[in-house]
Design a protein that fits this description.
Layout lengths: L7 E6 L3 E6 L1 H14 L19 H18 L7 H155 L1
Antiparallel strand pairs: 1-2
Helix pairs in contact: 1-2, 1-3, 2-3
Protein name: Golgin subfamily A member 6-like protein 4
Organism: Cyclospora cayetanensis
InterPro entries: Giardin_beta-like
Length: 237
């Protein structure tokens, strides 16, 4: 931020009215040269030359006061030129206005600095607010995704697991029914086979008993026939 320093317009009447526009650096240079050119006479004791370093209007005012005091003590030994002295007096008369203008310039610079700082602060606050809003939106989006996952995807996964469990249970029930049917069919087949075997065994046993009875009858008939034959032979002898 650059600051502009106001100038001072001083009227000097030598042969007419002449307006000269002095800026503070020009006035300071003029005052420095003016006081550097004034060297007080040495009537009795040697005096050190006046060496001033003017860097502000306050320094110029102090230098002018010191010069006026020195001229008052020196009396009529020395008097500066009337035009230069009048220009210095006009500057001293315009010094409060210069200070007021400098003060106003400083105040404007301060207000500009405050405005720029406030603008920078507002920009930073707006950027921070934007970041916070973006973070909140991102967090809300993530929360919505998590809620959607917990509500929708978890329910879908639970439904899929329930469906898989139901299908597995149905398959197991079907297999158990098939196994039970196969077991019952096998038991029926075994029972029928066993009954058939028992019937065959009974038939065989009946056949065996019948054969034994027939054999015994045959043996008895043969024994009786032999006895009769023996009796006939014995009676014939």
């Amino acid at each position: 931020m650059q600051r502009q320093t106001p100038g001072v317009c001083i009227g000097i009447s030598s042969r007419g009215k002449q307006n000269v526009n002095f800026s503070p650096p020009t006035i300071l240079t003029f005052a420095t040269r003016l006081f550097a050119s004034y060297s007080l006479p040495k009537p009795h004791t040697p005096a050190a030359p006046v060496s001033l370093s003017l860097s502000s209007p306050q320094t110029v005012v102090a230098a002018a006061t010191a010069a006026a005091a020195a001229s008052a003590t020196s009396g009529s030994l020395y008097s500066p030129p009337s035009s230069s002295w009048r220009a210095l007096g006009l500057y001293l008369h315009a010094a409060p206005r210069v200070l007021q203008q400098l003060l106003q310039s400083e105040q404007r610079a301060l207000r500009d600095a405050e405005t720029s700082l406030l603008h920078a602060f507002e920009e930073k606050a707006l950027a921070l607010k934007t970041d916070i809003l973006q973070e909140n939106q991102q967090r809300q989006g993530q929360e919505a995704s998590i809620v959607h996952y917990c509500e929708a995807e978890v329910r879908e996964r639970e439904a899929m697991e329930s469906r898989i469990v139901g299908e597995v249970a149905e398959q197991m029930q079907r297999l158990q029914n098939l196994i039970q049917q196969e077991k019952e069919a096998r038991e029926k087949h075994l029972a029928s086979l066993l009954s058939l075997i028992e019937e065959v065994v009974r038939e065989v046993q009946r056949d065996v008993r019948r054969e034994e009875e027939e054999r015994k009858k045959s043996e008895n008939s043969l024994v009786s026939l032999m006895e009769q034959t023996v009796d006939r032979i014995t009676s014939a002898i």
